[in-house]
Design a protein that fits this description.
Elements (H helix, E strand, L loop, with lengths): L2 E2 L1 E4 L1 E2 L11 E2 L1 H13 L3 E3 L1 H9 L9 E8 L3 H13 L4 E4 L7 E2 L7 E2 L3 H9 L3 E4 L12 H19 L5 E3 L7 H9 L4 E6 L3 E2 L7 E5 L6 H8 L13 H15 L11
Parallel strand pairs: 2-6, 2-14, 3-4, 5-6, 6-7, 7-10, 11-12, 12-14
Antiparallel strand pairs: 1-13, 8-9
Length: 268
């Protein structure tokens, strides 16, 4: 078994809106973490390249593989993350919420965060960054109806394919939430892999439709990222869902069904 850390970023900003600030890292800290990857001689892969290796030939993985992923599609990716990745020649995958494209999310004033527009997304793709789907409205897909979940998944893939002129083969579950049904819907929509969260280390034994990722927060020290790159500091991904994960899903479904909560919010 080869351990494969998959890093999950959201915003790269020194002045993020309050609602995303816990999941934002400063440009300087982001560059320090990328430099760690380079210094350790790690090889970055897109999610699709890793999934292809899992599906076909696990021996094709490079030494010390690592994946860099981003969720949601914040405009600061174009401003800060893309140049830093390009300067170091690192691969990455950006998961886009299509209903957010070109909008200011979280409010039209200073409380909102600008999201990438279609022209910026095209530049990101042309720069070699893989684009993946992240639903249309950022709904908790395991807490809505099967029909709604299928529409969120399929519409996202269609809009990205039409807007960018490329096939979209990988997906990330909003909030990291999925279920066996949601994972089947992703596969049926034509995606060939998908990322969860779990905050565990992925590996060549991981489920390619629920790849484990490690969330990088504003409070995440560089030393912990270094541990992840050394295949330490987090447990390996479990092959089965925890009981508490299932219980949490039932609780969220109940709140949505009773009208006590929305299936869509602005959290990661």
């Amino acid at each position: 078994m080869t351990v494969v850390p998959i890093l999950l970023y959201h915003s790269v900003s020194s002045d993020p809106a309050a609602w995303i600030s816990r999941f934002a890292v400063s440009p300087a800290e982001f560059e320090r973490q990328l430099d760690l990857i380079v210094e350790r001689g790690a090889s970055t892969l897109t999610v699709s390249a890793f999934a292809d290796a899992l599906e076909h030939d696990r021996q094709a993985l490079p030494e010390r593989p690592v994946l860099i992923t981003f969720d949601d599609g914040f405009a600061d990716f174009h401003e800060h993350a893309l140049p830093a990745l390009h300067e170091r020649g690192l691969a990455a995958t950006l998961f886009v919420t299509t209903g957010f494209v070109g909008r200011r999310v979280g409010g039209e004033d200073a409380a909102g965060e600008r999201m990438l527009d279609w022209s910026q997304l095209a530049e990101v793709r042309e720069a070699g960054i893989e684009i993946g789907g992240h639903s249309h409205s950022h709904a908790q897909l395991d807490a809505v109806s099967r029909v709604r979940a299928g529409e969120e998944i399929g519409r996202c893939k269609l809009l990205l394919a039409e807007g960018l002129g490329v096939d979209i083969s990988t997906f990330a579950y909003p909030h990291g939430y999925s279920s066996p049904t949601v994972r089947r819907l992703v596969a049926e929509a034509g995606y060939r892999s998908a990322c969860g969260v779990k905050n565990e280390l992925s590996s060549t034994e991981d489920d390619r439709f629920c790849l484990a990722r490690l969330t990088v927060r504003v409070t995440t020290p560089t030393a912990l990222v270094a541990s992840w790159l050394a295949a330490e500091g987090a447990p390996p991904a479990r092959p089965r869902e925890r009981l508490r994960t299932r219980a949490w899903r039932l609780y969220r479904r109940g709140r949505v069904a009773l009208g006590l909560a929305s299936a869509v919010d602005l959290g990661p």
